[in-house]
Specification:
The chain is mainly alpha-helical. The chain has a domain of 107 residues. It is built from six helices and three strands, in the order αααααβββα. It has a three-stranded antiparallel β-sheet with strand order 1-3-2.
């Protein structure tokens, strides 16, 4: 089994040129969503990449994954070593495909997600729902032109135009 993991890491690093980023993304997918479908784990990986692209988050995959209090597995005090090797191999392959750009971002640019039915984070009401994939709801900051009802109520109302006399 260890050989399969090494092959998956090699494939990810050949695809991306960066084995460290591939491993960080794979570990996050494994610990945050190994019970999810491939689509669910792919969506979780896209959230990390969407954060890397955002000026509000660190600009590397590992820095995003390891940012304090962002992903529950990183600061839960438990081992950060995968123990289900077949599941970790799937996570590595998903990381490789996301980093290679061959996996579509079904989250529509989401930078946050939560497991529905388990938690309802305070920040969730301030953001637009972009997708529901598997057991997670994916959200992003409301934009000025956002049509989503949860955003319309949060945006400042436009000031009335002054009329000339």
């Amino acid at each position: 089994m260890k050989f399969l993991i090494q092959e998956a890491v090699l494939a990810a690093s050949l695809t991306t040129g960066d084995p460290t980023s591939a491993l960080c993304l794979a570990r996050n997918g494994y610990f945050e969503g190994r019970g999810e479908s491939v689509a669910g784990q792919t969506a979780i990986a896209h959230v990390v990449l969407n954060r890397v692209r955002s000026p509000k988050f660190p600009n590397t995959i590992c820095a995003v994954v390891e940012q304090r209090k962002q992903f529950s597995w990183w600061s839960d005090g438990k081992s950060d070593r995968p123990d289900d090797w077949p599941a970790f191999e799937i996570s590595l392959n998903i990381a490789a495909s996301v980093l290679a750009g061959t996996a579509t971002d079904e989250t529509q640019g989401a930078t946050h997600y939560f497991a529905h039915g388990l938690v309802w984070p305070g920040w969730a009401k301030e953001m637009a729902t972009r997708a529901r994939i598997g057991g997670h709801t994916f959200k992003a900051k409301c934009e000025k032109e956002e049509p989503a009802p949860e955003c319309i109520m949060k945006l400042p109302k436009p000031k009335p135009k002054e009329t000339e006399e």
